[in-house]
Amino acid sequence: MSGSAVGHLGGYLLAGILPRPNGRDMCLLLIVLQASFGMAMGIVGFVTLTWVDVALMFLLGLGNGYVSLILFTWIQTSTPKAMLGRIMSLLMLSSTGLVPVSQAISGAVCSWNLNLLFVSAGVLIVLVTIWTAFQPALFAFSESLTAEAPTRIILGSEKKMK
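Above: the chain sequence. Below: its structure as tokens.
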């Protein structure tokens, strides 16, 4: 947990310091990071050395912190002001409110087989990444993450905000 937390802080700092990548690079970055998250998650179940787990969690946190800051900024700048509270409450529900549900499921699975927990989580992440990589809207979404003026993605079409 410490490795992940330090990695998140580092990712936040990198997102604030580094220039944003262009749309194509952002698209590639999102796919590579997500696939890396899945592979690292699957590996964690088999690692027996604490320092290796801490290093993996640090790297996961670094990538997650970097992408999270960019995504949250995009969401907050591209959401209409009247809807911002509702959208942020949905984000908080999905990121913190569902934690007890996932912990309950994880507890049941890990009491049966700990390796299965990590491998299945990693496989699910990689499968979602593969599916996402072939979605036509991914490039438009990636472009909007890097645009100077926020862009709303509405049913596959783009609209520049004024």
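Confidence is low (pLDDT under 50) at residues 153-157.
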